[in-house]
């Protein structure tokens, strides 16, 4: 069976995208919605105003400078005071991530109250390191949602850039810069401070992991001797085109003869995450009143099936760096140190003689958080059934915590004929891997339900 070059989705994506991570894009919902030459004209087109989102400090190197200009009907500036949002709930005001032990952890199935409806604003904090107030570290959240966000609400994280990975299900994400459909075996990245709204296509539940990066931005890894192709390629990342929640109406008295009018509805609520807590503020106008944008700071998505795996052609086993899709450099540390790497091990060929096609037993300085991504999209596939389903778990190996195959698995790999190439990961599950530089502390929610010191991690999480 040939490898899928894109995931064969039953749920089709009808949204339009720009292609190419790192490119500078200009996106208009009406010809001329983005002004020529001047970013900040005295009279922006169609009665809009210009608003800039800068994702890096102003004087950083040009190759790291990320910013985008939005042309919108009503600037985001016009909102009421932020006040604590549902701080009596664990999802809005989680217990501090404090548990740090030398143990490995596994979660065969995350514990949720399944009789309780939840939406995007009700994620569970699993763990974190660093401090969002210092822009250092990461947090990992678990979502298990079965309803749309409330009408006229939008979410944003002020803590960091969010990597959103559905394990199963799909998310319809409307951002200020346009719409993305993010299905299992795809992931999305939403920059810090960009507002978005999550609904469920066809009303079906979705479960997965959100990784928030407090420092800097995700980027493609350097390729070194690999050269220019292989792994994740720039052109396979998809960036939304502008979407205006409104219409353009003729107005002979206006400067351009046409004026942009937003569909505001009865008022909006913006829910913001800051220091892992939720806050909310009211505003009269929709955050999705952007008629056009231009820049290189934007949300994007990627289909993991597009990843071009590299590997052995003779013997030995190589480091998981070959599976890295995105990395986030730890500035101020030794060159090449990452705050976090995001990798995925999906269906691929192995051709390594006299070598088990699984890693050696190992202890890494990076911590490894591993979780399943269901790449089989057949609705009848067992793991695509229902909300209370397995596998929906993860494991975490701390820094220098030893791990590897159990005896049964080890013997299986010893008995395998390695004189011919073979396929791995053809069971419908891609392993999502988050390699983390600094120790991850767990919340009570994660710590109290975790299995510890397990010796059978793969079967415990993926096959239960
Ligand atoms: Fe490992």
TrEMBL record:
<dbReference type="InterPro" id="IPR014710">
    <property type="entry name" value="RmlC-like_jellyroll"/>
</dbReference>
<keyword id="KW-0479">Metal-binding</keyword>
<comment type="pathway">
    <text>Amino-acid degradation; L-phenylalanine degradation; acetoacetate and fumarate from L-phenylalanine: step 4/6.</text>
</comment>
<feature type="binding site">
    <location>
        <position position="403"/>
    </location>
    <ligand>
        <name>homogentisate</name>
    </ligand>
</feature>
<dbReference type="InterPro" id="IPR046452">
    <property type="entry name" value="HgmA_N"/>
</dbReference>
<dbReference type="GO" id="GO:0004411">
    <property type="term" value="F:homogentisate 1,2-dioxygenase activity"/>
</dbReference>
<dbReference type="InterPro" id="IPR046451">
    <property type="entry name" value="HgmA_C"/>
</dbReference>
<keyword id="KW-0560">Oxidoreductase</keyword>
<feature type="binding site">
    <location>
        <position position="368"/>
    </location>
    <ligand>
        <name>Fe cation</name>
    </ligand>
</feature>
<dbReference type="Pfam" id="PF20510">
    <property type="entry name" value="HgmA_N"/>
</dbReference>
<keyword id="KW-0223">Dioxygenase</keyword>
<dbReference type="GO" id="GO:0005737">
    <property type="term" value="C:cytoplasm"/>
</dbReference>
<feature type="active site" description="Proton acceptor">
    <location>
        <position position="317"/>
    </location>
</feature>
<feature type="domain" description="Homogentisate 1,2-dioxygenase C-terminal">
    <location>
        <begin position="306"/>
        <end position="449"/>
    </location>
</feature>
<feature type="binding site">
    <location>
        <position position="362"/>
    </location>
    <ligand>
        <name>Fe cation</name>
    </ligand>
</feature>
<comment type="similarity">
    <text>Belongs to the homogentisate dioxygenase family.</text>
</comment>
<dbReference type="GO" id="GO:0006570">
    <property type="term" value="P:tyrosine metabolic process"/>
</dbReference>
<keyword id="KW-0408">Iron</keyword>
<protein>
    <recommendedName>
        <fullName>homogentisate 1,2-dioxygenase</fullName>
        <ecNumber>1.13.11.5</ecNumber>
    </recommendedName>
</protein>
<feature type="binding site">
    <location>
        <position position="403"/>
    </location>
    <ligand>
        <name>Fe cation</name>
    </ligand>
</feature>
<dbReference type="Pfam" id="PF04209">
    <property type="entry name" value="HgmA_C"/>
</dbReference>
<feature type="domain" description="Homogentisate 1,2-dioxygenase N-terminal">
    <location>
        <begin position="16"/>
        <end position="304"/>
    </location>
</feature>
<dbReference type="GO" id="GO:0006559">
    <property type="term" value="P:L-phenylalanine catabolic process"/>
</dbReference>
<dbReference type="InterPro" id="IPR005708">
    <property type="entry name" value="Homogentis_dOase"/>
</dbReference>
<dbReference type="InterPro" id="IPR011051">
    <property type="entry name" value="RmlC_Cupin_sf"/>
</dbReference>
<dbReference type="GO" id="GO:0046872">
    <property type="term" value="F:metal ion binding"/>
</dbReference>
